[in-house]
């Protein structure tokens, strides 16, 4: 398999099949303009206009085989794909993000351009100034068009007040009414049970909360020309025809919300329903995606904010989930029950403080009362009858609102769905009992999720109403046995849910919007729990924890920020976020290998591989029916392996609490203790934790987060990929109010933050086409003769001769010359290359970096940076030995990739004087000096034909440096991308006598015996090993 450098480059596939640049979807056919009579009021005032005949319309395929299907009367006239540029589908960090045409700047309410630029720098540049921010300021004031007179007499305070004003304030600058923030006070009935001195219901008015009208937010969006051109008014089904697939066959592609079956079904419902009398305007579905989460505004203190965010599912998730695109709309700042409420309750309860159950009940009541204010009459009118809005293109349309998702962590899902926290049926989507939720992956479990799905039906609402009558009319406590008898079997609470109260009459099922949350359910849920339990097991083995920490610190980084450096001891779990746990999983297999005795080591590696595989596939940003079948099979395998691991380790190891868990338990017990005084409690808390002893712990699989993994396949099939509705985007958006808080006076900061949000919302502020980039500079020249003599390295042996051999076929290809035939007894390749290739000045020119651009599986442009002086020096390319006839990596008999370590990046100027020469002008050629890996067959998987079946990573080793094929040269255009290699720690390091003599990379003296290819380094890397499933990987 990859046992040497590629010898015959003319055997490789054409370059266009390796580096196919991403392409936009094909443009739609032009649509005839609307007739003059197609306006509001053209139909009879009493009869709705007839529905147009709808048909299946199919667009042309692009070069990746992607095409669109519309179920409509005609192709839409507004096509956001036409407005998209190649830069919109690029993830490259080297793109110029600052280029913007002058026509995009709207200066109002600023008096001129220079005032606007300074205001934009102040409000959108962040509170902690960086070098880039300082450079931006200097660019503004050093520009030739900057005139100090433009800003000399501006009243900045008045201008900023105008910028943050609401729609009814002076100085309006939008043509359409602005979405202003308002304050609403809420009064709720407070029930006092029959054992209080004054039983009955009292009213309490809560402090006002700030919010915006959802309909006005939509109007503002439709008036924004920049966002409108990217806004999808007509959903479509995205399909993919694979290579060698019949013309009539294709597979569905899942990704965006506006291409999901749920969105298309809602679109069909709106288009086929009876229209409004006398209206023939186009009907547009608006997909609402909410999210909320409480966040602390400071590292110290109690200042917190509970924002509610709104996204539009009509916008691409690639823009919507990117904070720099500013597509998140802040619509409310929820309030918690104030401390004064306890005084009010105590005054009517004979001085007794309210119980925890009572306070929890009223937090739920208050929260849903705030949501009822958001779901106001304007919202309900737009939901049922639509709202007519004149868009920025001058056309009127009727917009219908629909809610598709609500992103929240589990405690907030419990609050929103009005169920009990960790009750007997803990899932907000189904009624599977808690004692049965550990059956992940079984057919029994899959059936029960469907048959026991929660429904907002008449029976559900009758139970809630009866329970509330017991509390508010019969004066029972909120947690009385009478209430529990009604609601506890289904883990319900006596709350009138806002979504049910407002929308159930329209057939809305409130439980359908609580989709899966990858960040909290897996990365901070299942995987974090498994990792912590593994730490408990390792602490029972002498030295295992220290070995784990040292191995993680030795794991190299990868990519721009795909795999970060593990600087601290990971076993201490200090300040680890979801991103850190993700990296721990991606690199866990080589690190944990060999730490447990057999057979537990093999069982653990099976679990870690399957967890990493599930993580990579479930987090894909683009799925097809084929990849969902893979995810389904991996989910089944994962459930079985977790149960097996629980069975085998629970008895084999005495897993006890970690030190941090003991300390946390002591703190909890100290808080609960009420028998001792404050001083004695303090003394008790300060005692050594070892005095309390460590309790035994087992791996708990009966949790909602384990249960939720079984919903991912169907959730993706119905609503698109998980990155579209994950809480990750919401967590990133928390940076916005936190930075805005620093600009406030810390008093009544909600109102100040809402004004700052308005100011920032009003002043929002060379895609690479080659396969790689190597600098043009010639400052670092190396003489070929001295290079071999001074280095004394086997890597530079016969450097010039072998380089000419490598360049000779590339020269002929560039000149489009015929390849010479080598007759028996005549000059061979070496002799012809030596005689016809002349290296100008006998020099090569070294470079420090090389950028490689590649197309990802989801047809986006990305880049890797190679630096031979760092760990970012490993590359992968297609193997010559992979058969074109094979279309699945799982059935391949040979490995499809070659791997190498770049030890030098060079360019050279040569003069060719052989057959086909076109002059004596020097030609530049870039090349890489590579040390090749080979796949270690002695450690190859023995349980299957591929790594997917064997649940093991591919193992690489260096050949002896004395081999002729140990080093070689490579055309950079043949590089697919970089790869992440992790040392096989269990195999040990090479001795100095085996490491070879290679002072070009002094770090190679510390070579390990073997390396694992981390196929889970990122999502694109994982899909390269699922041969033929990556749409952007045209070579497969």
Automatic annotation (TrEMBL):
It comes from Hypholoma sublateritium (strain FD-334 SS-4). This is Uncharacterized protein. Residues 1-30, 665-692, 728-747 are annotated as: Disordered. Pfam families: Plavaka (PF18759). The lineage of its organism: Eukaryota, Fungi, Dikarya, Basidiomycota, Agaricomycotina. Residues 672-686 have a biased composition (Low complexity).
